[in-house]
Design goal:
Elements: H1 6-21, H2 23-36, H3 52-56, H4 63-94, H5 98-103, E1 104-111, H6 114-117, E2 134-136, H7 139-148, E3 155-160, E4 186-193, E5 200-203, H8 205-211, E6 218-224, E7 230-237, H9 248-256, E8 261-263, E9 267-272, E10 275-286, E11 295-297, E12 304-307
Parallel strand pairs: 1-5, 2-4, 7-12
Antiparallel strand pairs: 1-6, 3-4, 3-6, 7-10, 8-11, 9-10
Keywords: Signal, Ubl conjugation pathway
Domain Ubiquitin fusion degradation protein UFD1 N-terminal subdomain: 127-225, 230-308
Protein name: Ubiquitin fusion degradation protein 1
Length: 325
């Protein structure tokens, strides 16, 4: 057997030596992390998107530590995908019928990118990837629609999972979000396509913010057929500039067509003449009795939309100080 060339032998020794030296520390750290993180749906937050410039591309200490970190992140993501796959396999195996077996999935959430998901020109949703409620789903949800004979609009509920989804992302005060989004746990939307890989769902960015999600967070997605039709919605613009538009009511009616449903407590965006406007959904009523609901269909519904005072016109609440006698 011919000996290895010195450079190759040195490279193999450099790779294997840190692994051998750190085997004991690795086993103890794994034991601690297993005790602290009982959920298998865990992904190391230090490797989360979107920080490639500071985490994925750092080469402190040379190329080998960089490759080692890349390998560790890939392994963590593979374990996460396997945990989600195992959960969904159990759902399929224990479902009582075919419809139930394809109507619900636990998924890894990623943000929609208009460079990949924007429909071609001429399609209704073209240019509205971020200003609509459409999500990219896996093929099984199309099978669920066909088997259940669900009526249009096809709606899907995305929800945080207690004890599984990571803690909510703290949003800065100047970020466009509804104050109620700090507690919002579910949202409803439509489908832009059914070509997402199995166990993944791609969501519009406003839905990420409203649900306090990070990329690679685990959520539950299910086909819903009991969402009531909407009769009225009240929206709060973040800026009064939108109300200065001469035909702002017509703009609202046009842009609402890109939403299949609305969720109370969420913040939805519209685009008009190259500028983006944000609106809080502050009140939502269902037909025919006008009851206040958390979600309602707006597609193919005769819904009355009105504005309330813009956020920048609201007076800040005064804090009264109690004087000690």
């Amino acid at each position: 057997m011919t000996p290895l060339p010195p450079p190759l032998a040195f490279l193999l020794l450099t790779i294997s030596l840190p692994s051998a030296l750190s085997s004991t520390t690795t086993s103890s750290s794994l034991a601690k992390s297993a005790a602290a993180k009982s959920s298998p749906f865990y992904y190391d937050p230090t490797s989360r998107y979107p920080t490639p410039s500071t985490l994925l591309l750092r080469r402190d200490g040379g190329a080998l530590p960089f490759l080692w970190r890349k390998w560790d992140r890939a392994k963590s993501l593979a374990l996460l995908e396997q945990a989600v796959e195992d959960h969904n396999a159990e759902i399929v195996a224990t479902s009582s019928n075919l419809v139930d077996s394809v109507s619900y999935r636990r998924c890894i959430a990623l943000p929609l990118d208009d460079r990949l998901f924007d429909p071609p020109p001429g399609v209704f949703s073209h240019g509205h990837v971020d200003t609509g409620d459409k999500m990219s789903l896996s093929r099984n949800f199309w099978d669920a629609i066909a088997r259940s004979k669900a009526e249009v609009p096809w709606l899907f509920e995305v929800s945080r999972v207690e004890g599984v989804t990571s803690p909510r992302v703290p949003l800065p005060p100047d970020e466009h979000h509804h104050p109620s989004s700090t507690t919002l746990s579910r949202a409803v939307g439509g489908a832009i396509d059914f070509r997402s890989p199995n166990n993944f769902v791609f969501l519009p960015r406003w839905m990420f913010k409203s649900l306090g999600l990070r990329p690679f967070d685990v959520v539950d997605v299910r086909l819903v057929t009991n969402t009531p039709p909407g009769s009225a919605v009240r929206l709060r613009p973040h800026t009064s500039k939108f109300l200065d538009i001469g035909n702002h009511q017509a703009v609202l009616e046009t842009e609402l067509k890109h939403y299949s449903a609305l969720t109370l407590g969420s913040t939805i965006p519209f685009d008009y003449r190259g500028e983006r406007y944000h609106f809080d959904v502050v009140d939502l009523r269902s037909a025919p009795r006008g009851e206040r609901v958390n979600t309602a269909k707006v597609q193919d519904c005769d819904i009355a939309a009105e504005f309330v005072r813009a956020r920048d016109q609201l007076k800040p609440k005064r804090k009264t100080k109690r004087k000690d006698e």
